Amino acid sequence: MFKAIKGSRFNVQVGNKAFKDYKDGIFPTILRNSIDLIQASKRILTNSTVIALVLSTCCGINAFVGLRAFSTKYINTQFDVPVSQASMLAGIIIIPCAIFGNITGGIIVKKLKLQKRGMAIMAVMLTAAALVAIPFFFFAGCEQNPKAGLTVPYSINNDTVGWTLPDLQSTCNEDCMCPPAYRPVCGSDGITYTSPCHAGCSSETSDHNNTMVSYNHYHPCKTLQET
């Protein structure tokens, strides 16, 4: 049996509806908090400035997340850079640029003593400039070499009749059980192979040369004499 909660009654008027409950206890607290939540939500949802700011922030975060997620893949495929080095390059490019942009924006606002209207105009102008500049990134890249099994058949197979691309299997790697990871290697025949395994290579040597980028040499490779 639950013990009744004692206390004086009180009236709460919300619009045309009146609510009655005990002054003390859990139920009045829940009721008051629910009413406060509804009123606060109404004030926020009817504030056009807050809604515009929230939408702007969501769009900005969405753009940054998309850039960070796919920039590594873009560098990996367009410049034939290994995934590990592509991630490092993406971080070197994105993070310092974000820091530089925030610091520069703060300096401009402070030096020009911009108020709310001025900061809004500056944000709109910079966003418009970014939208105009973004399409030019689609033209950034290197000349794409033919890729064995993706754009051209494997040269080791002289009979290319009936070939269906993409097809990464060839007589040089059919027994290797190659993983699907994209680790492009350039062959001396001018063809790019999806990975050393797909090129039929069995040994690897590295040459760092005290630089951030290391060069790997693979040999011997069944599809060609040297990579």
UniProtKB/TrEMBL annotation:
It holds the Pfam family OATP. It is a multi-pass membrane protein. GO terms for molecular function: sodium-independent organic anion transmembrane transporter activity. It is found in: Cell membrane. Keywords: Cell membrane, Disulfide bond, Membrane, Transmembrane, Transmembrane helix. Coiled coil: none annotated. Belongs to the organo anion transporter (TC 2.A.60) family. The chain crosses the membrane at residues 44-67, 87-109, 121-140. This is Putative solute carrier organic anion transporter family member 1A4. Its main location: membrane. The keyword Cell inner membrane does not apply. GO terms for cellular component: basolateral plasma membrane. It comes from the Eukaryota. One of its GO terms (biological process) is sodium-independent organic anion transport. Residues 166-223 form the Kazal-like domain. It comes from Stichopus japonicus. PANTHER family: ORGANIC ANION TRANSPORTER (PTHR11388), SOLUTE CARRIER ORGANIC ANION TRANSPORTER FAMILY MEMBER 5A1 (PTHR11388:SF142).
